[in-house]
Amino acid sequence: MTASNxxxxxxxxxxxxxxxxxxxxxxxxxxxxxxxxxRCGLVTTVMTPVGQVISRRFTGLxxxxxxxxxxxxxxxxxxxxxxxxxxxAHVVTRRPGALTQGNRQLLRQVLSAPVxxxxxxxxxxxxxxxxxxxxxxxxHVTTDDSHLTWSESDAARLTVMSRLRRLGFTExxxxxxxxxxxxxxxxxxxxxxxxxxxxxxxxxxxxxxxWWQVRIHASRM
Length: 221
Hints:
single chain; alpha+beta; two-stranded antiparallel sheet
């Protein structure tokens, strides 16, 4: 096994997730491109014809590195067949290696800080529609159509949104230009300044999909 081959496997979020959730797979350099996995280019003990794993309507080929390949390795078969990866948010960490299915509480916890280069997060905004983990990147939040960086300012705005949700403002209300009085009048008067300040802090991102959609998803109670 070459050093470049080890590096390729270690840098692949899918391989890191599989190693954490199942086992560290045995892998090797293919004798040629046709023999290698169509998605990752590597070879495992068991290889499965592509047609047995994905349908002709599959649209994720842009994330495959070896289109000459005719098979998928056991790691890539797992990522396409393990249905929870399509329906639930997941967090992958490289050091230490871990794959965690995230409920909203965990997602809020993870996104309350910047996403580091040793973490990859997937958030299916439309569960079941797409395979997100094969497209995931270290240091990013991957949604149905985007790879998002997640900075300190993003984390701070999620905290702000969660605070407003706890006060009773709904997802629809949060997209308004100003807080609705129907909810505001229930808030103690000494907190009104905080509410207006929080509302203004969200304004720059209110129409910045998909960051907005990820925050909405993570702030749900």
